[in-house]
Amino acid sequence: MSATTTAPALGAGRRTIAVMVLIPTVVALALWAFAWPAARTAPRDLPIGVAGPATVVAGLERELGRHEGAFEVHRYEDAAAARAAIADRDVYGAVVVTPGGTELLTASAASPVVAGLLREAVTAQAPEGTTVQVTDVVAAPAGDPRGAVLASSLLPLALAGAAAGVVTTLLGLRGARAVATLVGASVLAGLVGTALADSWLGALTGDWWAEAGVLSLTVLAIGSTFAGLAALVGKPGFGLGALLMILIGNPFSGVASAPELLPTAVGSLGQLLPPGAGGSALRSVSFFDGAAVGGPLLVLAAWAAAGLTATLLGARGRRTEPAAAPLPVPEPVG
Predict the structure, then answer these.
(1) Which end of the chain, C or N, has fewer beta carbons within 10 A?
(2) Which residues partner with 74 through β-bridges?
(3) How far apart are CA 167 and CA 175, in angstroms?
(4) What is the crossing angle of helices 274-287 and 294-320, to 10°?
């Protein structure tokens, strides 16, 4: 066998081995990212409130403290202050003790999973023969009582952003034209998403244009990251973007449950990535009149600004690269 036939065979063999190793690695990474947080779901410093007479509240705090590291307890003067804290997204719920009995205040709009968890925990600790009144202060919309639509919409948003960044790059759009394309596609995606989730399905119930703005900014943050990474490092940037936004950002977002129900590092990291920040911002503008939306919006704006800047800088770097030296032209014979 000659050297000319051996080299292609060796190259094909290496590519075959690379594919055989890469696919199981991706599968293992995806299972770790999606399945591990779900298997470790439990409250970790979950902020809840207590209100009532000092002696009774102290007993409640001791009972909740038995679940070490599970709850972060905030004390309020009365039921009105606890309700205000729930509406401001400071706590997920509150236990209020009055002469008439015990009342549990929840906010299923913040997380139906947390609302159910608090209902079970407080009911289990109530003295035998007593009834705990449960009041849903900020209820989930009738069109999405379990939050399934909101949780399911996150992956399509991530895929829409990824598609915008990849297509913009593959079409050869550079600089200001690429930025305009990413912004335009993100705005249209946000409008379409709001029309479906709010106007059609009724899963969102807040200000229509605020919801569209959050969806658009989320898609832009993801799409500009894909385009910016590709502009800086080439097509491997697509893989890095998929790792950050889809394989890690989506399952670590906590939209299906709550960031405080995920392992501590996972929940914190998820809120620093566009999918998690976008989900939190969407809950705030849709159900809580924009309460606590500043932090998530800042995260989204930072990712979008960084991605668009990288897209511009990458295009400028390509323009300033020196042109390759022309190949020598052979002189004519004779």
Answers:
(1) C
(2) 49
(3) 14
(4) 140
Contact 262, 250 (CB under 8 A): no
CA dist 191 and 294 (Å) reads 21
Q: Which residue has the tokens 């906010």?
A: 107
Residue with tokens 């020196």: 322
Model confidence pLDDT, tens digit, residues 156-185:
999 999 999 999 999 999 989 999 999 999
Q: Angle between the 154-170 and 274-287 helix axes, to the nearest 10 degrees?
A: 130
CA distances from 54 to 59, 73, 75, 86, 88 (A): 9, 14, 9, 21, 24
What span, in angstroms and rounded, lies between the C-alpha atoms of 38 and 198? Answer: 28
Please check whether residue 218 is in contact with residue 278, taking contact to mean a CB–CB distance below 8 angstroms. yes
Is the four-CA dihedral 118, 121, 125, 129 of positive or negative sign? Answer: positive
Are the beta carbons of 29 and 55 closer than 8 angstroms?
no
CB atoms within 10 A of CB 129: 5
Alpha helices in 234-293 (DSSP H): 236-242, 264-271, 274-287
pLDDT tens by residue, 257-312: 999 999 988 999 999 999 999 999 999 999 999 999 999 999 999 999 999 999 99
The whole-chain average pLDDT of the chain stands at: 88
Q: Is the pLDDT of residue 203 over 80?
A: yes
pTM for the whole structure: 0.88
Which residues are registered as beta bridge partners of 105? 94, 135
- Rounded CA gap, 105 and 134, in Å? 6
Q: For 76, list phi and psi in degrees, rounded to 5.
A: -125, 155
Q: What is the DSSP string of 93-117?
A: EEEEEETTEEEEEE-TTT-HHHHHH
Beta carbons within 10 angstroms of residue 73's beta carbon? 18
Computed on alpha carbons and rounded to an integer, the radius of gyration of the chain in Å comes to 26
Beta carbons within 10 angstroms of residue 35's beta carbon: 11
Specify the amino acid at residue 116: G
